[in-house]
Amino acid sequence: QAQLVQSGPEVKRPGASVKVSCKASGYAIETFGFTWVRQAPGQGLEWMGWIGATNGFIEIAQHLQGRVTLTSDPSTSTAYMELRSLRSDDTAVYYCARSPGGPPSGGDIWGPGTMVTVSS
Amino acid sequence: QTVVTQEPSLTVSPGGTVTLTCASNTGAVTSGFHPNWIQQKPGQAPRSLIYSSTYKHSWTPARFSGSLLGGKAALTLSGVQPEDEAHYYCLLYVGGARWVFGGGTHLTVL
After folding, report:
1. A52 or A95, which is more confident
2. What distance in Å separates residue B81's CA from the closest CA in chain A?
3. How far does CA B91 lie from the centroid of its chain?
4. Can you give the pLDDT at residue A83?
5. Residue B96 three-state SS
6. How far apart (Å, rounded) are the C-alpha atoms in residues B110 and B104?
7. What is the interface size between A and B, counted as CB pairs within 8 Å?
8. How many Cα neighbours within 13 Å face the side chain of A33?
9. How distant, in Å, are the alpha carbons of A82, A109, B59, B60 from that of B63?
10. Average pLDDT over residues B27-40
11. Mean pLDDT throughout A75-85?
12. CB A59 to CB B45 under 8 A?
């Protein structure tokens, strides 16, 4: 069945970068893309962006533009989210989800999440 | 900048019915926002329940239903079970490939 597997937890210093991976299996990735969502401790979900799995189309939330890079490697069915210039308020669980980008779904299958801790 | 508003918390008795709502600061929530409803239990990843206002996934329990109600998106749980205690997030489409989450509703079953 369709599933997403994410990379393991990360601990980073302020100012560093982190790259989280999301590997898809069990479905044809060509018809979907990857949505990225994060959740700070005790807080709600925050939509970060979306990348098409094979067409290179990218949307990134305005407040994260300039710090987030989304990439996709169709040969390995893997998407990556890189966040630069890390701050303490970037500490969060980062999720990927399968999504066509536009309607009807913002994400149907979700990964388990990757904890990123930013601390000096 | 679209801001999506949900009730911060609601309480329902087991076996009861409860409706959660989702509003937009830009005006009425219509089918064009393709409202999604996402469930998240403590310590777990989110799980999508509803998409495009009313459509269920194969894994969505029958007691969950989505609708548009009085200019808002709505999620109704009928015959609430103890395991339905969770946070519920509304997700609205705002154009291109962009979506916005609501702040979430914490549903207590008591």
Report:
1. A95
2. 23
3. 8
4. 98
5. coil
6. 19
7. 74
8. 24
9. 39, 20, 12, 8
10. 97
11. 96
12. no
pLDDT tens-place string over residues A11-32: 999 999 999 999 999 998 888 9
Tell how far CA B5 is from the center of its chain. 11
**CB contacts, 8 Å: A112 with chain B:** 45
Which CA distances in Å does A86 have to A5, A14, A20, A118, A120?
23, 5, 13, 7, 11
How far is it, in rounded angstroms, from Cα B86 to Cα B108? 7
Nearest-CA distance from B14 to chain A in Å?
A: 25
Chain segment B71-98, per-residue pLDDT in tens = 999 999 999 999 999 999 999 999 988 9
Interchain contact, B51 vs A105, CB within 8 Å:
yes
Q: Which residues contact A14 (CB under 8 A, 6 or more apart)?
A: A86, A87, A88, A118, A119, A120
- Looking at residue A29, what is its pLDDT? 87
Contact A4/B at CB under 8 A: no
pLDDT of res. A56: 79
Residue A47 has its nearest CB partner, among B45, B52, B101, at B101
Name the strand (E) or helix (H) holding B107.
strand B105-109
